[in-house]
Design goal:
Elements (H helix, E strand, L loop, with lengths): L1 H19 L36 E4 L6 H4 L1 H12 L5 E6 L7 H12 L3 E7 L7 H10 L8 E5 L13 E7 L2 E8 L6 H4 L1 E2 L1 E5 L3 H16 L8 E5 L2 E6 L13 H7 L1 E2 L14 E9 L2 H12 L3 E9 L3 H5 L5 E5 L8 E2 L2 E9 L2 E10 L5 H5 L3 E7 L1 H15 L8
Helix pairs in contact: 1-4, 1-5, 3-4, 4-5, 8-9
Length: 409
C-alpha cells in the first residue's frame, strides 16, 4: 500500500504540473497542424457502442448528433479504461490527445494507480507535446521494465514521419479477454464535433490481440526501420503494418491497398452487389493522394464494379483520374469550418473478393491513401471479412454520403 501511495503521489505531482499549463475554462484546443496532425445509400445500423460494453463490432461518431453521439468513440475507449480490472493490462498507441480529453488522461492514470498495468506509446511531436501527453509521460515514467510506463517516439517509431497509430488493447475488461480497438479518431474536440470517424472493436480474438501486442512492443522500442512492413492473420481479420519501404525506379509499386483491390472480382455475384451481379466498392477517405490506387478504381469500374468514393481531399492528380470517369461516383465533404468533413479511412467491398463471390469485406485503420502513410508513417490497416461489421460500415457510409454538406464535384 505504501508503494502504491508513493506511486500515486508521483503521478499526482506530474498531473498538477501539466494541468498548470492548460488554460482554465478553455474546454478545448482547436486542431492545428492539419486534419491528421491535430487532428439507395441511406440509413443507420446498430453497433457495439449501443451498449458500450467491450465486444465485437463497429463504433462510429455522428457529428450531426448529440454530444454523446459525437464522442461515442472516445467514450467507448474511456469506458473500457475505467472498467479495466486490477492486474489487467492496457496498451495504447496514441497519435494525439488534447486538453479537451483531459478526463481520459486522468482515467488512464487512475487505472494505473488502481493496479492496472498501463503502457502507452505516443507520437512525440503531437501527443507528446500536448499538456495531457506530457502529464502521462511524466506520471508513468519511461521504464519499459516497470508495470506501467509511457514513451514517446519523435517523428515516428519505425518510420521517419509520424506514429499515426490509434489503437487500444485491453487484456481483460467487462468479462471479455483480448480486446482490440482500432480507430481512425484522434482525441481532440474536432474529431468528434466535425469529423466523421470510425472504430472497430474485437473481443476474445487472441491471435489478433497477440499480433497487436507484438507490434506495440516493437513500437515501444523506438528503433527506426523504414521497411518495417509485415502482417498477420487472425481468423477473418488480416492486419498490415507500415511503413513499406519506398519503391525505386524500375520496381513495381509496393502497396498493400493495391494488393487488396487486386483481389476484387467485379461480376458473377448472386446474392450481393448491385442487383445485377456486379460488385460494389465504396470508400470513405479523408485524404486520397496515391494515383496508382485511383487508376485501380477506374480499372474496377471498367470491369463492371460500381465504385463510390466519399472524400475530403484529393492530391497528386487523383482528381484528374477519378473526376472524368463515368463509372466512378464521387461525393466531396470539403474541410470547411462551417460543415463536417471525413476523417475516416475505410473501403468496403460487397461482392467478389479473393476468388469468392458474394463476400462482405471491410478495410479500415489509421492510414490515409497517402505516400506518407504508405512509406513513412507507423500505421495499422485491417481487412475484415464479416457481414455484420460490413453492414455497420455500409450504414455509416450512407450517412456520410448524404451528409448535408456533401456535394457532387
Amino acid at each position: 500500500m505504501k508503494e502504491r501511495t508513493r506511486k500515486w503521489r508521483a503521478q499526482l505531482a506530474a498531473m498538477m504540473v501539466a494541468l498548470a499549463m492548460i488554460i482554465p475554462g478553455s474546454g478545448a484546443v482547436a486542431d492545428g497542424r492539419s486534419t491528421d496532425a491535430l487532428d439507395s445509400d441511406q440509413g443507420h445500423a446498430d453497433s457495439v457502442s449501443a451498449q458500450m460494453q467491450a465486444g465485437t463490432g463497429a463504433i462510429f461518431n455522428d457529428p450531426n448528433g448529440s454530444e454523446a453521439d459525437q464522442y461515442r468513440i472516445r467514450d467507448y475507449v474511456q469506458g473500457l479504461v475505467e472498467r479495466a480490472p486490477e492486474g489487467s493490462t492496457i496498451s495504447m498507441s496514441i497519435y494525439n490527445i488534447t486538453d479537451f480529453d483531459l478526463d481520459l488522461g486522468t482515467e488512464i492514470l487512475r487505472a494505473s494507480f488502481n493496479g492496472v498495468n498501463v503502457q502507452l506509446v505516443l507520437e512525440g511531436s503531437v501527443a507528446g507535446e500536448s499538456p495531457v501527453g506530457r502529464m502521462l509521460l511524466g506520471a508513468l515514467g519511461d521504464d519499459l521494465e516497470a508495470d506501467s510506463w509511457a514513451v514517446a517516439c519523435d517523428d515516428g517509431c519505425h518510420g521517419s514521419n509520424i506514429n499515426h497509430n490509434k489503437f487500444f488493447l485491453f487484456s481483460e475488461v467487462d468479462g471479455e479477454r483480448d480486446v482490440v480497438v482500432q480507430s481512425s479518431a484522434n482525441f481532440t474536440v474536432l474529431n468528434g464535433s466535425r469529423y466523421w470517424n470510425n472504430a472497430v472493436s474485437f473481443a476474445n480474438n487472441r491471435d489478433l490481440y497477440d499480433g497487436y501486442m507484438d507490434y506495440f512492443a516493437d513500437l515501444a522500442r523506438n528503433h527506426t526501420d523504414p521497411d518495417y512492413h509485415r502482417g498477420f492473420e487472425a481468423g477473418d481479420v488480416a492486419a498490415t503494418l507500415f511503413p513499406v519501404g519506398p519503391s525505386y525506379p524500375g520496381d513495381g509499386p509496393q502497396d498493400p491497398l493495391l494488393d487488396e483491390l487486386d483481389a476484387v472480382i467485379c461480376t458473377g455475384n448472386e446474392a450481393t452487389g448491385d442487383g445485377r451481379g456486379n460488385t460494389i466498392v465504396r470508400a470513405a477517405q479523408n485524404y486520397f493522394g496515391r494515383p496508382e490506387v485511383a487508376e485501380k478504381l477506374t480499372e474496377l469500374a471498367d470491369e463492371g464494379c460500381v465504385v463510390k468514393v466519399a472524400y475530403t481531399e484529393f492530391n497528386f492528380g487523383v482528381d484528374d483520374i477519378l473526376l472524368p470517369h463515368p463509372g466512378v461516383e464521387l461525393r466531396l465533404l470539403e474541410d470547411d469550418p462551417e460543415q463536417n468533413m471525413i476523417h475516416s479511412k475505410y473501403l468496403i467491398v460487397e461482392g467478389g473478393f479473393d476468388g469468392e463471390r458474394d463476400q462482405h469485406v471491410t478495410i479500415t485503420g489509421s492510414p490515409n491513401i497517402s505516400y506518407n502513410a504508405l512509406n513513412y508513417n507507423d500505421e495499422a490497416m485491417l481487412r475484415i471479412i464479416d457481414p455484420a461489421i460490413y453492414g455497420q460500415y455500409l450504414s455509416n457510409f450512407r450517412d456520410v454520403w448524404f451528409d448535408e454538406g456533401a456535394v457532387t464535384p
